[in-house]
Design goal:
Blueprint (H helix, E strand, L loop, with lengths): L1 E2 L10 H9 L11 H14 L3 E5 L2 H12 L5 E4 L4 H4 L4 H4 L4 E4 L2 E2 L2 E2 L1 H10 L7 E7 L12 H14 L2 E5 L3 H8 L11 E5 L10 E5 L1 H13 L8 H12 L3 H14 L9 E4 L4 E5 L3 H13 L2 E2 L1 E4 L2 E5 L8 H13 L3
Parallel strand pairs: 1-13, 3-4, 3-7, 7-8, 8-9
Antiparallel strand pairs: 2-10, 5-6, 9-10, 11-12, 12-15, 14-15
Helix pairs in contact: 1-10, 2-10, 3-9, 11-13, 12-13
Bound molecules: pyridoxal-5'-phosphate.
Pyridoxal-5'-phosphate binds next to helix 3.
């Protein structure tokens, strides 16, 4: 089976696992795991932040950020289809007790004028807005890239209004590598989280980046959430090596492009979303067709994922071999005919 349900399905290969045997370990709750400390330092330097915290998941990074940037009853501006709002099991309601204010967007880029209007209208009856949260790449749009300059522009607004800008960068490496844009998110946002466990083969782990004060608080919240760990170098060593191999993401983009361009009938479903990164989303007008599409692909040994009842996605990652692309193309063209 060629598993394209998500880029989280990658497994660490022998070379990655070998890192564990070499890793220096210590108790991270005492701040004494040298491998974790080195990874946190490396990532904060790379992305231009003061400090970093190794955490168990992207969800934890997003939710800790809301706990710090907001207080109960305040608002977070985001897109209606964002991960932080829709795909985190209601964690924001449960933990930071914030509510989301949706703003229109194009490919994840929130409409600047709409945001300004909302902020300026915020008066007696409206909750206080504390944070703007953006997603790069933007999942629901098909993995679209938000330009560095656009985030910078947004940051000038959040700074002038005293708001925080959080970047859910689960796939920010995809965005940076594909658009050849700067890593320096420390200059254009207040907090950034990204995943080692997507596409690169690391089994576990995300990084949360921010100011020294932010990370100090984040460490406390991580503990409260049960995310304090001990000899974490075991997983941080793999994450570190995976990060060093991040250029491989560009090959994933190449495989995705090859497949997208070889789809013979682009009108077999309502819409196909492809934004030049590592995923293709097929939109159907009804549930039956999306389920049939998945079943047909499966009969040709390709696993696709259901995002919602009318959207099917295929996501490329390091465990999809370039030679698999022919199979994938054949499977899609087989499954899309006769609909
Ligand atoms: C995967 C993902 C997350 C959450 O990451 P987990 O490590 O699965 O908790 C957050 N945001 C986006 C856009 C994602 O794709």
């Amino acid at each position: 089976m060629i598993d394209l349900r998500s880029d989280t399905v990658t497994k660490p290969d022998k070379a990655l696992l070998k890192e564990v045997l070499e890793a220096n370990l210590g108790d991270d709750e005492y701040g004494e795991d040298p491998t974790v400390n080195a990874l946190q330092e490396k990532c904060s330097k790379l992305f231009g932040f003061e400090d970093g915290l190794f955490i168990s998941s992207g969800l934890m990074g997003n939710q800790i950020s809301l706990l710090i940037h907001n207080s109960p009853g305040t608002e977070v501006i985001t897109s209606s289809d964002s991960h932080i709002k829709n795909y985190e099991h209601g964690a924001a309601a449960f933990l930071s007790r914030v509510q989301f204010r949706e703003v229109d967007h194009i490919d994840g880029l929130l409409n600047f004028d709409s945001i300004e209007q909302i902020i300026n209208k915020s008066k007696i009856h409206k909750p206080t807005i504390r944070t703007i949260s953006i997603e790069n790449t933007h999942l629901a749009s098909g993995g679209s890239i938000i330009k560095y300059e656009d985030i910078k522009h947004l940051y000038t607004l959040t700074q002038s209004k005293g708001l925080s800008l959080h970047v859910d960068g689960a796939r920010v490496l995809h965005s940076i590598l594909q658009s050849k844009s700067p890593y320096d998110y420390g200059s254009i946002s207040d907090s950034l989280t990204f995943c080692f466990s997507k596409a690169l083969g690391a089994p576990i782990g995300s990084m949360l980046l921010g100011s020294k004060q932010f990370i100090k608080q984040a460490r406390e919240y991580r503990k409260i959430l049960g995310g304090g760990m001990r000899q974490v170098g075991v997983i941080a060593s793999i994450a570190n090596k995976a990060l060093d191999q991040r250029e491989a993401i560009l090959q994933d983009h190449e495989k995705t492009r090859l497949v997208y361009e070889s789809i013979s009938d682009k009108y077999f479903c309502k819409e196909i979303l492809y934004k030049g990164t590592n995923m293709i989303i097929f939109k159907f007008s009804n549930t039956k067709n999306s389920n049939e599409f998945i079943e047909n692909l499966k009969s040709k040994n390709v696993l696709a994922g259901l995002i919602d009842d009318k959207s099917v996605r295929i996501v490329f990652h390091k465990d999809v071999h370039i030679n698999d692309t022919k199979n994938i193309i054949d499977a899609i063209n087989y499954s899309s005919s006769g609909e």
